[in-house]
Each structure stands twice: as structure tokens, then as C-alpha cells.
């Protein structure tokens, strides 16, 4: 999730501009995406501006695209098929083709013990926001006893990476699998967040990445400039779908928790709640 910030914020963090994804700048050669892979990602419909290599804390390699979407090599090979970009779409709520199935269902969320309690508090706030909507999808934070591996549906893990080549990745996640499982990992950059003090804004970032994990696209996927500024940038259907959620607006809407760039503390809007209720 990309976020801006001033003292009030339009998305999260910093005194003028900060990002939970990546800034518009050059990418170092060591992190540049090979041309053949870049062509494949672009053919799927993703916007490839500032796409770059990324290896998560477990050693899984892939690519960050559109600010906060982590595409693993396996996901690219097995979960996607090229589709055309959906033309003429306005700013509405959108879901991927793959959603979490087996409802009603409880999703277990695990916070890496390397995180401080600040991250745990933010995760609990994000979980409470979802659970307050009385969905058929409920979230529970689980902890380990240090003796065995924790069984979780989504693990929130830490990585430490400073700015490189003019951008910084602060958080990322992926989309549900074809088997109806939520994406299993949210990456948060402690380089940035260890100096952060707004727990509600961090909760919004976590809730946003959880939204991707259960199948939500960016509200303004068809033109990221609506919330991020800059040039027109259509993220495309990307082979994963960009399905309009009935009951949500057909015009621009500020304040959605799934905007590409949103306010620091952004609880669910009424239309966000409509979208959540429709899918789950």
C-alpha cells in the first residue's frame, strides 16, 4: 500500500511524502526485473512502472508491482492467465476472480515475534475492524509457544530494507489462490515502521494488505493517479480479475481503505462495508 503523509495524511506517513510501497524513481540494476519477466507481467495487465525484485524474509523470491503487490515466481506461473485490461472503468470497489471459500470461515493471523507490541496492537485493531462487520469471514490472531510451528492462514512478517534506487518498499501482500485460500503472508518493513508512532495508521496499512489477501483490488486500480497523483496509471485486470462489486459507487470516492494511496487512519467507509458484506 502506498501512503503519503503530512501531519494529517492522505495515506500514511512522513512529513511530505512517504510510501508503503515504492516511490516513482529509478530501480538499481541489481533489483531490475528481467525484460522477459517484465513483458510477462505487463502482458497480464499489471502496471510495471517501478516493478522490482523482492525477496521476503523466508527467502521466497518474486516481484513488487503497483506499489504493494508481491508476485512470486510460483504465483506468476500457476495462478494467473493473461487477460485484457478492462476498459472504461470508473472508481468503484473491485475483487479478484479468486476469493476465499469455505464460508463461514475463521482466518488465523500470526504476527512474527520479531515485531514489537506496537505491531501486535495495530494488527488487533485491523482484525477488530473486520470482525465488527459480522462477516462470514472472521479473523483471529494466534500466538506460538516457541515449541512448534504456528498454523496460521496469514503470517505478518518483518523485513528490514532501507531506500534503494529512489524507492522504499514498506509493505506488500498477494491475492487468494485458486483453491480459495487467502494469500498467506504480509510483509512489513521495520526500517520504516520501527520509527512510526501512529498505531491506527499502521492498522489501516495492515487492514489494506489483509484486503488484498482476501481478494480486494485497489479501489482506484483503473487510475492510481486518483489517490496517488502523477500521471494516469491503469493497473489492469492483470489476469486476476477486476470485478465490480454491486452496490458500490460508479464515481470517484475518497476515504476507501483500499485506495492505492489513502489517509493515514482510514477505517472502513460505508461503501467499503457494502463491498465487504457483499463478498463475505
UniProtKB/TrEMBL annotation:
One of its GO terms (molecular function) is metallopeptidase activity. It holds the Pfam family Peptidase_M57. Keywords: Signal. Gene3D superfamilies: Collagenase (Catalytic Domain) (3.40.390.10). This is Dual-action HEIGH metallo-peptidase. PROSITE patterns: PROKAR_LIPOPROTEIN (PS51257). Residues 1-20 form the signal peptide. It comes from the Bacteria. It comes from Reichenbachiella faecimaris.
Amino acid at each position: 500500500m502506498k501512503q503519503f503523509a503530512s501531519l494529517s495524511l492522505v495515506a500514511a506517513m512522513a512529513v511530505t511524502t512517504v510510501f508503503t510501497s515504492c516511490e516513482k524513481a529509478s530501480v538499481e540494476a541489481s533489483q531490475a526485473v528481467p525484460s522477459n519477466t517484465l513483458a510477462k507481467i505487463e502482458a497480464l495487465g499489471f502496471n510495471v512502472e517501478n516493478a522490482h525484485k523482492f525477496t521476503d524474509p523466508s527467502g521466497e523470491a518474486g516481484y513488487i508491482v503497483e506499489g504493494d503487490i508481491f508476485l512470486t515466481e510460483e504465483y506468476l506461473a500457476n495462478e494467473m492467465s493473461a487477460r485484457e485490461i478492462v476498459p472504461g472503468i470508473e472508481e468503484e470497489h473491485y475483487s479478484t476472480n479468486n476469493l476465499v471459500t469455505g464460508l463461514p470461515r475463521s482466518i488465523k493471523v500470526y504476527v512474527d515475534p520479531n515485531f514489537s507490541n506496537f505491531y501486535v496492537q495495530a494488527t488487533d485493531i485491523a482484525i477488530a475492524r473486520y470482525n465488527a462487520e459480522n462477516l462470514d469471514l472472521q479473523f483471529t490472531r494466534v500466538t506460538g509457544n516457541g515449541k512448534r510451528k504456528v498454523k496460521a492462514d496469514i503470517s505478518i512478517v518483518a523485513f528490514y530494507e532501507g531506500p534503494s534506487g529512489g524507492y522504499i518498499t514498506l509493505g506488500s501482500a498477494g491475492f487468494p489462490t485458486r483453491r480459495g485460500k487467502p494469500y498467506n503472508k504480509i510483509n512489513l518493513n521495520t526500517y520504516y515502521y520501527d520509527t512510526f508512532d501512529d498505531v491506527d495508521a499502521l492498522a489501516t496499512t495492515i487492514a489494506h494488505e489483509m484486503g488484498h489477501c482476501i481478494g480486494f483490488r485497489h479501489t482506484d486500480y483503473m487510475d492510481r493517479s486518483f489517490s496517488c497523483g502523477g500521471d494516469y496509471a491503469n493497473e489492469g485486470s492483470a489476469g486476476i480479475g477486476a470485478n465490480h462489486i454491486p452496490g458500490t459507487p460508479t464515481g470517484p470516492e475518497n476515504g476507501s481503505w483500499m485506495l492505492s494511496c489513502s489517509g493515514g487512519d482510514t477505517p472502513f467507509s460505508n461503501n467499503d462495508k457494502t463491498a465487504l458484506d457483499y463478498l463475505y
